[in-house]
Amino acid sequence: MPDRPFDPGIAAVPHPSGAGFVYGEDVFGPEPENRRLDDIRPSLLDPACTGPEIVYSIAMDIGKKKDRELLRSLHLLFGAVTYAAGKLGREPVRSQGHIHRASPRNGCSTPEVYEIWAGRAVIYLQEYAGDRPGRCFAVEARPGDVVIVPPGWVHATVSASPEQPLTFGAWCDRDYGFEYAGVRRHQGIAWFPVYNGQNELEWLPNPRYQPSELILKKPGDYAALGIRKGLSIYRTFEASPETFRYVPDPQTKAQVWQTFEP
């Protein structure tokens, strides 16, 4: 049975067509960018697989109209993404995997704060994009769960609910940008998620990396990063706009990142 959708505290809901979002009267937002299957084939286990033509739709820079100038002044960007139901061959619908590029403001790769709104997700993370991937995690998340990706880590978002779309929101740096080179050089992330005969996710090591261990877990305790259980990340921002200062300026939480586990 599907989980009940989570109320993110902002009126941005997936369009009935499955592509893009419908915004409330008090919300601003852009036309979505669509990622098509042909766009992500090089990072898939089976690049020739079949699947939904539009794999996911991204709407970056949404928010309540009253917050527009504040978001700009804090260099914060709120985005929403919706994934199609279905599969990519044996694989779940997922993103390619990338690192956030260094911000031109401070030279730092920036973190990302995910919040699941509908469907089920696995946020996959690995420390490095080189031959040695370092620590690798697959963090299972349901509606209302928050998962934080630390600066400089490779990450990919995986839908674990093929019978329904996955929708999530995220706080990002306003100068966000993606680096794909390391992942593409290895033809994907260090662990490929695939469905077995019982329609359950399993993980296959990518032989183009050195051997690594994959840790399966639930989301961590992010109290040190301002996350309050049961309060949406947009409402957290409304209550205390400075909470997510570390997203565009990760050096403000340097001690947290040193020992971070998602």
Secondary structure topology:
Layout: E1 12-14, E2 21-23, E3 27-28, E4 33-36, H1 37-40, E5 54-60, E6 63-64, H2 68-73, E7 76-83, E8 87-88, E9 91-92, E10 99-100, E11 112-118, E12 121-126, E13 136-141, E14 146-149, E15 154-159, E16 166-173, E17 178-179, H3 181-185, E18 191-195, E19 201-205, E20 214-217, H4 233-239, H5 254-258
Parallel strand pairs: 13-20
Antiparallel strand pairs: 1-2, 3-6, 4-5, 5-7, 7-16, 8-9, 10-17, 11-14, 11-16, 12-13, 12-15, 18-19
Which descriptors would you attach to this protein?
four-stranded mixed beta sheet, globular, mainly beta, 5 helices
Structure description:
- With 262 residues, the chain is mostly beta strands.
- The protein contains five helices and 20 strands.
- It has a six-stranded antiparallel β-sheet. Strands 15-12-13-20 form a four-stranded mixed β-sheet, with no helix packed on it. It has a two-stranded antiparallel sheet with strand order 1-2.
- It is globular and about 45 Å long.
Biggest beta sheet summary: 6 strands, antiparallel
- Based on CA inertia axes, which overall geometry fits? globular
The number of distinct helices, counting runs of at least 4 residues, comes to 5
Intertermini distance: 27 Å
What is this entry, summarized?
This protein has 262 residues and is mostly beta strands. The chain has helices at residues 37-40, 68-73, 181-185, 233-239, 254-258; strands at 12-14, 21-23, 27-28, 33-36, 54-60, 63-64, 76-83, 87-88, 91-92, 99-100, 112-118, 121-126, 136-141, 146-149, 154-159, 166-173, 178-179, 191-195, 201-205, 214-217.
